[in-house]
Amino acid sequence: MHIYIQTQGARIVREGRHLLVKKGEDTYHTLFVEKLRQVVLFGNIEITPPARATLLRHGVDTIFCSRDGRYLGRFATPEPKNVMLRKRQFTLLDDQAFGLDLCRQIVTGKLLNMVTLLMRVNRTRKRDEPRHAAKEIRSLLDSIAKAQSIDAIRGYEGRGSAIYFGAFRWGFQQDYGFCRRVRRPPTDPVNAVLSLLYTFLFNRMYAAVRQANLDPHPAFLHVPDYGRHSLVMDLMEEFRVIIADTLTLSLFNLKILQQDDFRQEYPNPVIEQSEPGLDPTRDITADPYGHMSNLDCRPYFDLPSQRMGEDSVQDLDTEHGGGKPAVKLIDDAFRRVVENFERKMTTEFHYPPEERTITYGDALVAQAGMYRKVIEGSLHVYQPLLLR
């Protein structure tokens, strides 16, 4: 069970064997700890010490986000105990052939999912642009199959993503100002929803990786770096289109979200000092957007840095807002996104690798388990999940 708590001023308390979500004297939810896998807290939510101890004792993945969904951190759960598995993860980082083949599979799966979604858009919206973009992306697959380095594969992935997002806008029935992927900060409603859903997906994939007893840091497609959960980002690539992008289209096209569900938040203006000779300074008393101009603000607006390589296309200015105001969801719309994300994650579908019906949430765990088998050597090829 995955729980999202958004009621500002609420507190989580322990009562007997259960946890209660309360505000004042009112009880909003009763949480059965044995069934909990993840609790996500947004904004001003208090956890009492006994409740905190209960969450930690039961290994519940507890995540803290700002009120508008920016990831802040999580409770540290015990490290995986399988030392030999972790050792093999790190040892394989030096196996270029292994990493190349794995990256080839992941990126091929991601680009095929992009092609499938664009062709859906072509059929439903009756436009040629998505079909042309799908053809361009498909043409990259032969190059990926022949690539001799991971850097080359990263370059093809970046090119495919740029083409894909250039055509993604044609999937919407109305114009919401989206023309490319911008996440630092998101500058239109579509980018705001994509960033939020990618953050939710990241958290769920992190939990799946830990459930498979894998170390979330060592990986191949996303460059390992200090504090970067590269494996989580590698494994979520194939799910971006399947879960987040398709859901974004549905939220807007089914009118679950509309233009007035978003607000703009402007950076604080420069305020001149009254004393002569002093440089203008920003008013930093109100909101953090006012004093982030000289900081690496990536983790405040979306996932931690997702850099795949030194020259990756997705790290160029196509991700930056260029000084435009941040676009954010209002509270009620935020709740609708959360509800529909969970509905998506509990949707069942046929899972080809195991020839059975599972939910998308279970698919994340299954794919992490498949990755573990590849690491251990009991499975030779990682099979990415494809959109049907």
Strand and helix layout:
Elements: E1 2-5, E2 11-15, E3 18-23, E4 26-31, E5 38-42, E6 46-47, H1 49-57, E7 61-65, E8 71-74, H2 83-91, H3 96-125, H4 128-146, H5 150-168, H6 189-211, H7 230-253, E9 262-265, E10 270-271, E11 281-282, H8 298-301, E12 326-329, H9 331-345, E13 348-351, E14 356-359, H10 360-376
Helix pairs in contact: 3-4, 3-5, 3-7, 4-5, 6-7, 6-10, 7-9, 7-10
Write a structural description.
By secondary structure, the chain is an alpha/beta fold. It has two domains: 2-74, Ribosomal Protein L15, Chain: K, domain 2; 83-266 and 293-376, Four Helix Bundle (Hemerythrin (Met), subunit A) (Up-down Bundle). Helices cover 44% and strands 15% of the residues. The chain is built from ten helices and 14 strands. The strands form five sheets. Strands 1-5-7-8 form a four-stranded mixed beta sheet. It has a four-stranded mixed beta sheet with strand order 4-3-2-6. Strand 3 (18-23) and strand 4 (26-31) form a beta hairpin. The protein starts with a strand and ends in a 12-residue tail after the last helix.
